[in-house]
User: Fold this.
Amino acid sequence: MAVNGTAILLEVEGQVVGSQQGVTFNETTEAVDVSNNEHRQRRVIPGMYGSTIALDALYVPADAGYLALQQAMRGHAMVDVTRIVNGYPQYGARALITALSARATDQAAALMSAALTLDGGWYVTVACSLGIYNVQQYGAIGNGVVDDTAAIQDAINAANAAGGGTVYFPPGTYKATNITLAGMANITLMGAGAASILDNSGNNTRVFEIKTSSNHIAIESLTFRGDFGIQTTDLPLQAGIEVKHSEFVSIRNCHFEKLCGDAITVGWTTHHVDIGNNSMDGGLGFVGMIGSTVDGYAEYIDVHDNTIRDTITAPRPPAGGINNPGSDDLIDGWGMKHVSIRGNTFNMQGTIATATKSNHAILLLAVEAEGQVVEDVAIVGNVIDGCISDDALYTSKAIELDASQWYTGYTGMTNVSVVGNTIKNCSTAIAVFRPANSMVVSGNAIYDCKNGIKVTLGDYCTVQGNTIDKASLGGIYLQGNGLVCVGNILKDLAASGQGIVCVGDDSIVANNLVHLGGAGCYGFSVEGNRNQIMFNTASHCLGYGIAMQGDYIHCIGNHYHDNGTDFADWGTNTITTLDE
Assistant:
């Protein structure tokens, strides 16, 4: 993306240390290569680690500023980048300095060059020059009793009439609901963090609705409060922020607690939304994304670096009540494109699912009847702890990607990657149903879960380089054709646990390690035709090390150590060489 006529400011720990005027630069999207040597197709995650920018005439007038930039680069510390457009600070981003030249010998010029990699996308900054609109000056009381909705709406309308501005919420508790930003631009809603509370308890709608082609809207440092976990009857549909038919919206540094609906809903032809550095404690959901071929998709959504706690232990209404389907899906979506869910922390220790209630940290669905696709999604570097079922089906899953309701071809869920996540204390860590052939599950660390990774009806998917420790029921289960399962490590399986199970034709199972299973445990179970089982290690599996069934299977170069039975072949025309 070319950016022309823009001034750039660099800040280190809140101090402006450098600037460049009239910048013209190109942002180039990074791509993370998750290919593997066993598969012909190159697989990448496009644009999920921000963009790189280069400044060739950065003005750094003071030695202290140059030293601060140098120390930030050497210490891999984030700096702040601000874009000034038409005299106003319009966009901000966090970035790492990747290259820094020495300053010019002419110290009066003090010019240098720098290269930066952005941590995610640009977010809308406070437009300082556009004025401050204090909601209390428009009649808001903030005592938690009086309804302040009309006063807050008046302050927002005044800012919009002036061409934009910052609507400020001083410390207080504001009873408010269904405040609308329709067709507005350049508005920032800002509070004082935990001290500025928007109380939506007892209501049956959202606090803010952003719609009708609104753009460049920022919501920062506000706390949204509901009463989930207090009521024991049917719940109201109580939400925080709803964004639809709008673009360039930023929601940062906000806190959400005990809302009976999604804290944030994004969809219906909404583009370029940044949801970062927020927190949630208790509630039915954090972010919901929705779209379709009819109503338009949620696109270019970045959900990153949020802390999400679902720790309510108070009695809850039974599942199936009004607006209470009985599921806690903290990030969910139907109908989205170009979405990044990265670097979030989920603590779900307070939530136990029942047979009529399922929990997910992340749930994405493709539904053909509504034209709701899931396309170009990266789930990267999240930490998920405690997604538990108490039913025999183990319905709770930390990450579930489900295209089972897409019946025509494998087009409902495409180019989806689950990479580098840490998942522990869950019923099932990662479950995928009927994805397209660009699915990648790679480099995840899974601990103390009943099931590790399950891919069902997933032709040509890749499961690579994952570590699974102490899976009590199963490590990796794959069903489909042309699957690639390489370089995974499974250890300390329980007595009835199965290591790697692969059902289907023309698949590759190679360079995996399964160690220390219990009685009856299969290290590898491969069923189907023309599969290749190569250079794996099965160790201390008290059942079978490798068991296979099918036609024309190649079993080559595998290693066996202290298994109950090393090898079982129930197939025909098997080719076995170099095993030991």
Summary: Residues 517 and 541 are 4 Å apart (CA to CA).
